[in-house]
Amino acid sequence: MSAVHGAPRVNPIDGLADALAAALGASMVEVVEAHFEISVTVERAALADVMVILRDQFAYQQLMEIAGVDYPDRAERFEVVYQLLSVTKNHRLSVKVATDEDHAVPSVTHIWPVAGWLEREVFDMYGVLFSGNTDLRRILTDYGFKGHPQRKDFPLTGYVELRYSEDAKRVVYEPVKLAQDFRSFDFMSPWEGAEYILPGDEKAGGQAPGAPTPAAAPPPPSAVPSTPPPPTPKTTEHKGQTGAGEPANSEAAKPSGDKT
Does the structure show a pLDDT above 70 at 56? Predict the structure, then answer.
């Protein structure tokens, strides 16, 4: 039976967990099989060798993604997750390694060159180092950016913001400004007693303090001075009534074939 969810369909392979455990041996920390998916946690130092085994012996030909996870309470707070795809078996496999700020994860760029940019993204967002990546630079943040935005302890508002200055003809950094025109927020539902009047509810009576004054009600019909009715609108009963005079009427009355 295949997994039924929003992710790409994964065909379970009977006995795969046991086969992985036998092939990886001491390099494997644990294997978890749940929700029709398998994830394998391996020793950090053995990552590159494990990936070669998974590619050559288990036919996981493609590296689809590298993602980071931050668990600040763990001794090794970061978890690097590799998503592998077997095109021939129509199966996906997650490979995980744990690390911290000081210990580098072996690069897999020599196995899958696409890992170069993926490792740079994890480095940029989490600060995870990858030994063997010859171009480990930031890829999403700007030059000189300090910190790693996807860490759980990174401040939500950041420290500085950047914009392109037409005057300076370059990118400039400025302290973060959270300017807001309206700071009085009322998160109470209007149906639970909010003390403001929604647009269009002025007829319900009452006016909230500071709310805009509703438009004055129209005067009763008796107070409106009578005005003569508008003239009868012009109508065209037949094609001769063009309103442009006799020459145009005569031309319009001709059959289509006689017009010049």
Answer: yes
